[in-house]
Design a protein that fits this description.
- By secondary structure, this protein is of the alpha/beta class.
- It has a single domain (about 15-180), classed as 3-Layer(aba) Sandwich (Beta-carbonic Anhydrase, Chain A), CATH 3.40.1050.
- Helices cover about 40% and strands about 15% of the residues.
- The protein has helices at about 15-30, 60-70, 85-90, 95-110, 125-130, 140-160; strands at about 50-55, 75-80, 115-120, 165-170, 175-180.
- The longest helix has 22 residues, at about 140-160.
C-alpha cells in the first residue's frame, strides 16, 4: 500500500526515520521491504541481510548507526518485533512469528538476502513481559536468556533455510554490540 510517502532514511525523509520505523513496526509489512535504510535497493534487487531488532525507541538510532558503521547502509531489510528473537518465538504472540517468517520469505524472494542478523538488546521490556521476570539486574542471567532465545531462532532459521548465514548480536543501552554464539 503506497500512501504517497517515500523514505530515503538518510534524514531527508518526509516521514523521518523514527516515524518510518514506527509504521514498519505497526504493520507496513512487505510493502516496506525496500532496502532500509538508504532506499537504494529495488524490489528486484538484492541486499546482504534481513535484520531483526526490537522496537525499543531508545535504540533505533544506535541500530542504524551500528549497521551503517559496518558498511551495510542500503544493504539490509529491517523487521521490527518487540523482543526481537523472543518476539519471533513467543507462543504468547504466534502471529508475530508468522510475520517474521513471511518477511524472511519475501526478503529472500525479492532481495535475495543471504544472511539473517538478529539483534536483541539489554534491559528489554518484552523479555520482562513474555518471560515474567526482570533480568536487567543480573547481567549473567540476562545474557543467558538472550543467548537461549537467539540460539533457538538461529536453529529455526537454519532448519527452514539451510543456505542462510545467521548472525546473533546483543546491544547494550549505550549502543555497544557484542556477538552471541549459537
Amino acid at each position: 500500500m503506497d500512501h504517497g510517502h517515500h523514505c530515503d532514511c538518510n534524514g531527508a525523509s518526509p516521514l523521518g526515520r523514527r516515524r518510518f520505523l514506527t509504521l514498519a513496526a505497526l504493520g507496513g509489512g512487505a510493502a516496506l521491504l525496500s532496502g532500509l535504510p538508504g532506499g537504494t535497493a529495488h524490489a528486484s534487487g538484492s541486499v546482504d541481510a534481513l535484520l531483526l531488532t526490537c522496537m525499543d525507541y531508545r535504540l533505533v538510532d544506535d541500530v542504524v548507526r551500528y549497521m551503517d558503521g559496518r558498511g551495510l547502509n542500503g544493504k539490509y531489510d529491517h523487521v521490527i518485533l518487540a523482543g526481537a528473537s523472543l518476539g519471533a518465538l513467543t507462543e504468547r504472540m504466534p502471529a508475530w512469528g508468522n510475520t517474521f517468517w513471511q518477511h524472511l520469505d519475501v526478503a529472500i524472494q525479492l532481495h535475495k538476502v543471504h544472511r539473517v542478523i538478529v539483534m536483541d538488546h539489554r534491559d528489554c521490556g518484552a523479555y520482562r513481559v513474555f518471560l515474567d521476570k526482570d533480568l536487567a539486574g543480573d547481567r549473567a542471567a540476562e545474557s543467558a536468556a538472550h543467548a537461549a532465545q537467539l540460539s533457538r531462532l538461529a536453529a529455526e532459521v537454519r532448519s527452514r533455510h539451510p543456505g542462510l548465514e545467521v548472525e546473533l548480536l546483543l546491544m547494550s543501552l549505550d549502543g555497544k554490540v557484542e556477538t552471541v554464539s549459537a
